[in-house]
Amino acid sequence: MGFSIASDGLVSINHGTNHFAITTLNTGKSPCITNSKCHRFPINIHSVYFRPKNPKNAKSEGDNCPFIYAWKKKHPKLYITRYSLKEMRLDFYIILDRLVENIIKDHYVDFIVPLPSKHGLALNLATRLQRRLPNSVILFDIFIKKPNSEILEEIYDLNIIHSDRTQLTNAISRANALNRNFSISDIPTNLRGYLDPLKVNTALLKNGTYLLVDDLFATGATLLNAKDKLISLNSNINVLGSVLFGPYNNRIR
Question: Which alpha helices (H) appear in the chain, and where do they start and end?
Answer without folding.
Answer: 66-71, 82-106, 121-132, 148-157, 162-177, 221-233
